[in-house]
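Morning. Coffee machine broken again, so started the prediction first thing and wrote up yesterday's gels while waiting. Chain of 128 residues, entered below exactly as on the submission form.
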Amino acid sequence: MKNSLIFTVLALVATTVFSCEDSVSSNITIRKTRTLSVENVSVSNNLISLIAISEWNNGCGSFSHYTILENQNDILIAIYREQPKNATCTQAFIQFEAPVEIIVDGSGEYNLHFWQNDSTSLDTTIVL
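Came back before lunch.
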């Protein structure tokens, strides 16, 4: 009985560790993308919601995630895209929407800096 319980626990752990989700994620490339514009900005309490229109250099993949780095009222945002590794892709630039939500401390002027490349950003200011 004790051995079957140990086997069951080990089987559950192995299923969790070696799931299909893990193997799929190892076949994905994630990279930063250029932000071209910011649309649909809305503010509710201390939450800023917006859509960042970003660009990618081929037709593969989709929006992955975004990162935020805050330095007082300056907020740096990088949008990331993911695509399957070794995929055959069209060689045309595409645009996609990236929903972004930012929680701020309170009223004030916030400078949002969207990554475009290592030396430039698309900047916009929001006043609460």
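The chain has a mean pLDDT of 81. Going to sketch it on the whiteboard this afternoon.
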